[in-house]
Amino acid sequence: SSGINAEYGVPNELWRLYGFYASVMTFKLATMFAFTAYHRITKKVFTNPEDAAKHGGSVDRDNESVERTRRAHLNDMENIIPFLVLALLYITTGPSYTLALWHFRVFAVARFTHTICYLNALPRSAFLFGLLVNISMGVQCIMHYM
Q1: CB distance 45 to 58 below 8 Å
Q2: 72 closest CA partner among 125, 31, 24, 119
Q3: Per-residue pLDDT of the chain (146 residues; tens, 9 = 90+)
Q4: Which of 22, 37, 111, 117 has the greatest CB tally within 10 Å of its CB?
Q5: Per residue in 50-78, is it b (16+ CB within 10 Å) or e — as a string?
Q6: SS3 labels along the chain
Q7: CA distances from 76 to 8, 28, 42, 70, 90 (A)
Q8: CB 71, CB 118: distance < 8 Å
């Protein structure tokens, strides 16, 4: 139903939209460690001596593929965590469903595109689209609550 959540005054459709995109982005963030682990195990390079000994590998904190994946994960943390907070605040400002949808959709596509490009050493201008979405929502929230 498209009723209003009386406690916060946010239409249910915006809660569902936020819930969907917050879930997708959180799942993406939470699974990036698996890519790092995959590269560590397949390359047999580890950060800790005990892990290297357990898996028959060596300690190497500078392996390019492992470090590239780890940096992509860190970049996700730097961008997705602010998105989750800003998007939650943003839906309380009364945006139209369509405007909120496009903010969230552009952010999600930008983050997935950025990760694919980063892992494959391709140009990463998609990062800017996600950043612009966060800036847009942040500015709108500040102006609304000022």
Answers
A1: yes
A2: 119
A3: 455 554 578 889 999 999 999 999 999 999 998 888 888 888 888 888 887 888 888 787 877 878 888 899 999 999 999 999 999 999 999 999 999 999 999 999 999 999 999 988 887 788 899 999 999 999 999 999 99
A4: 111
A5: eebeeeebeeeeebebbebbbebbebbee
A6: CCCEECCCCEEHHHHHHHHHHHHHHHHHHHHHHHHHHHHHHHHCEECCHHHHHHHCCEECCCCHHHHHHHHHHHHHHHHHHHHHHHHHHHHCCCCCHHHHHHHHHHHHHHHHHHHHHHHCCCCCCHHHHHHHHHHHHHHHHHHHHC
A7: 29, 8, 23, 10, 20
A8: yes
**What is the Cα–Cα distance from 81 to 130, expressed in whole angstroms?**
12
